[in-house]
Amino acid sequence: MPVISFANAKGGAGKTTAALLLATELAHRGFRVAIIDCDPQHWITQWAEISGPIRNLEVISEASVASLQCHLRDLASRVDFFIVDLAGAKDALVTTAIGLSDHVMIPVQGSAMDAKGAAQILDLLALMRDKANLDIAHSVVLTRVSSMVTTKALLAIKGLLAARGVNVLNTPIGERNAFKEIFEVGGTLHTLDIAKVSNVDKAKENAAAFAQEVIRLMPAHVIRSPRLRVFPFGRHAA
């Protein structure tokens, strides 16, 4: 069962949105997912409180350096994917979570500050590799990409990161009303009222493409097949 952490040392990079989109899309496909909410703002916990039970999805509302590994161990038998939403920081909990991860997703908007926050996580990953012999897979996902951003500009950003040896997902996460709406009303993209929210279908396509690309990055032997019978999980605190 893969552990996927979302990290950027700067807040506001679209980290929580990316984590929630991946988690809810995986759950929609029948995978059993646990989100561990390590962000002190607890946006995903607040989303869970207004959403109520979501099929195949459980939210751990808090975690500490001491409890994180316990959560991973205790839930391992009934979870197919762990998604860890980390603080916009580079602290002991972020370091611990990254060290326990199978893949680290680094969300980046098109700003210098986001790039610096991402660079801090990349430096931490390099330090773990060099000093602790932990070679942790990682990728950058471009977030809040506006329709005004040209394909040429995106290719330039990807090329710059690729030159540093950083994998960049082909699927950027767009700036969409539907992504904001699920934090306001709860639920998932699949439960939004299409009469009230624009371009829900496009948002679903974006989330589905993102999730599919992430799944393909995971080693085949660590992914369990989605269950045919699905049950609501719920939410609990650490």
UniProtKB/TrEMBL annotation:
<dbReference type="InterPro" id="IPR050678">
    <property type="entry name" value="DNA_Partitioning_ATPase"/>
</dbReference>
<protein>
    <submittedName>
        <fullName>Chromosome partitioning protein ParA</fullName>
    </submittedName>
</protein>
<dbReference type="InterPro" id="IPR009744">
    <property type="entry name" value="VirC1"/>
</dbReference>
<dbReference type="Pfam" id="PF07015">
    <property type="entry name" value="VirC1"/>
</dbReference>
<dbReference type="InterPro" id="IPR027417">
    <property type="entry name" value="P-loop_NTPase"/>
</dbReference>
